[in-house]
Design a protein that fits this description.
- By secondary structure, the protein is of the alpha+beta class.
- The longest helix is centred in the last third of the chain and has 13 residues.
- It is built from 4 helices and 6 strands; from the N terminus they run H-H-E-E-H-E-E-E-E-H.
- Helix content is 31%, strand content 28%.
- The protein has one domain.
Length: 129
């Protein structure tokens, strides 16, 4: 990665945690600030098990937290370096659970090709095996 690319990327980082955003940027994943980009994402078969704490360690706090009566209680809205949008969310847990509890997470993308790209990125950062 070139110094110019890092400098350009650093100038666009925003949010509560500069260091977290820097790590995500270097991994080629960033939080989305334009939530319209993830509007058309849906489940395309990719799931993994992890604790909320592990995901928070990778991406920071969820973008959404809802009550356990909702189908999705926690969601992260992200994109790959090439602009591929994706979401990570719990689905139909319908319960309160602590950040250390391992749950099943769904990944939303716009199509199967994007799902494969996201899967590779999640393998690279240790969320998917």
């Amino acid at each position: 990665m070139s110094a110019t690319r890092i400098a350009i990327g650093l100038s666009s980082l925003r949010g509560k945690s500069y260091v977290l955003n820097l790590v995500l940027y270097l991994m080629g994943i960033k939080k989305i600030s334009n939530f319209d980009k993830v509007y058309d994402t849906s489940f395309n078969g990719l799931q993994f098990k992890a604790s909320t704490k592990k995901i928070i360690g990778k991406f920071g706090e969820p973008d959404y937290r809802n009550e356990p009566t909702e189908k999705v209680t926690r969601e992260w809205d992200l994109e790959l370096e090439d602009g591929t949008p994706f979401t990570i969310y719990d689905y139909a847990e319908y319960r309160r659970y602590g950040d250390n509890k391992v749950v099943n997470w769904h990944v939303g993308t716009t199509d199967k090709d994007e799902t494969n790209k996201v899967k590779e990125a999640l393998i690279e950062i240790g969320l998917y095996k």
